[in-house]
Design goal:
single chain; 93 residues; alpha+beta
Amino acid sequence: MEKFLIQNEFGQPQELLGEEIAVPGFDELQFILHAWLYDKRGGWAITERSSGKRITSGPQGTEHLAREQLERQLGLHGKEVLLRVLGKGPLSS
């Protein structure tokens, strides 16, 4: 586990304890898998570091599906749509 200091989507500093997930074709973005409150219970989320926006999440015990779920969503919506949603802020790289 690594500590990541980000600005969340509301502009507030936030420290995440998690691991980086690299996705082929999205090399300029840094995705972080970390613990997250999910449906009033423990869970996980994947947040894009430069925007602080949560991309996907799931309940505790399904962390092994996180990368697959992220790749499926990125493949479904595409890189251009993701970059538009994340805004024109600085990229992770």
